[in-house]
Amino acid sequence: MVHGKRNPNLGWFLTIASxxxxxxxxxxxxxxxxxxxxxxxxxxxxxxxxxxxxxxxVLFWNPQALKVSWRELPLLIAFGxxxxxxxxxxxxxxxxxxxxxxxxLIEYTASVVIPVVNWLLFRKKAGKGIWLGIALSFVGxxxxxxxxxxxxxxxxxxxxxxxxxxxxxxxxIAEHTQNSRDSYSTLFYxxxxxxVFWFTFVHPSLANxxxxxxxxxxxxxxxxxxxxxxVGLLWLGVMGSFxxxxxxxxxxxHLHSTGVGLASISEVxxxxxxxxxxxxEVISGIQGIxxxxxxxGIIVAQLSTRSKKLEESK
Length: 314
Description:
Shape: globular
Radius of gyration: 19 Å
Order of helices and strands: HHHHHHHHEEHHHH
Number of domains: 1
Strand content: under 5%
Distance between the termini: 30 Å
Helix content: over 70%
């Protein structure tokens, strides 16, 4: 688990891949909830399953990485509670009251807040290319979400803003925490803390969940395809949480939080694409233009990061 030099290209790739799986997870979670699985259980299950898989990975590769000092605990607890648990809780409540696209749009205004916080607190200046990329992507997300067609619930908006603040905290604290810890053990501790906190204070009832062998109809364009519920939960735990979270943590080893926050905007586009392909949710032509702008913004920022790296190596 020895991390080498920063590789921004790898950081961009990992973040986009993470966003792709998170975008697919939005449809997966929706199908599971419609099948009777409680949203509160979904939140706790994602944290718990990710913690178990991360622990197995650490025990296999480097058990020594599990050592943690008392000085590290407050930061890890804050990361797990605010950056993971409260982020999922505010987002879950936001999407229950607002369209998914609107919720994600507000949540990922964090991409603008992160570079400002980095500049104010850590004196890390973002280059012009990053700001141009943020602007293009943000306009694209607004077009994709088409929020002007919706009557927005003020309580839902408050939860969405809370999610934005938690996402900002998540990216900043994740980058800082991994200055002294490896990504794998960090993932284990933060997700384990999140799971313990969630099941302790929310304690979703296991008895109220459908039986693991009950049929799960994938609905939408996959209507008629039926799998056992445990297959859906397994996918949710591995590909909907563990893999994208791990990719996200690893990406922050190679890319600053500003870049990771920007690239994560692509989750909105992926969520709409999978919602269309799987659930049959319609994407208009103008939303396609928005998706192109998001992609263009990320490419502009990525090229800016590469140019800066080349200049620094001269």
